[in-house]
Specification:
single chain; 116 residues; Complement Module, domain 1; four-stranded antiparallel β-sheet; three-stranded antiparallel β-sheet; 1 helix; 16% helix; 38% strand; elongated
Length: 116
């Protein structure tokens, strides 16, 4: 879809970018539009999945965490800036729940040591 508006003797054509695929083990949030066509200036923000139950976490690696739909005006077809990052498994992933449990357990044992 090409968006065109006419103002007196000037024709304005909106630059749009194609949809880009979500990374494996992650997703893209588009700001402000959630559906294609993505207009000039729209951002694609990458994030990775976290599975707290199985203690698996993924982190963004390489590329750009945010990409922007841009163009030079020579075509109505824009391009996304930068390159896509990937979601790689992070070792030693610990959930917030684990951290709270460990903190409480540590306080309990320290308090027992102090009272003996």
């Amino acid at each position: 879809m090409i968006l065109v508006s006419v103002h007196a003797s000037m024709v304005v054509v909106a630059i749009t970018c194609e949809d880009i695929p979500d990374p494996v083990n992650g997703q893209i949030t588009h700001v402000p539009d959630a559906h294609a066509p993505f207009e000039y200036g729209n951002e694609a923000r990458y994030s990775c999945y976290v599975d707290g139950e199985n203690r698996i976490g993924y982190g963004l690696t390489g590329g750009n965490h945010t990409r922007v739909c841009s163009g030079d005006g020579s075509s109505v077809m824009g391009q996304w800036t930068g390159t896509a990052p990937t979601c790689e498994r992070e070792l030693g992933f610990i959930t917030v729940t684990d951290n709270i449990y460990n903190l409480l357990a540590c306080r309990y044992y320290v308090s027992k040591l102090g009272s003996s």
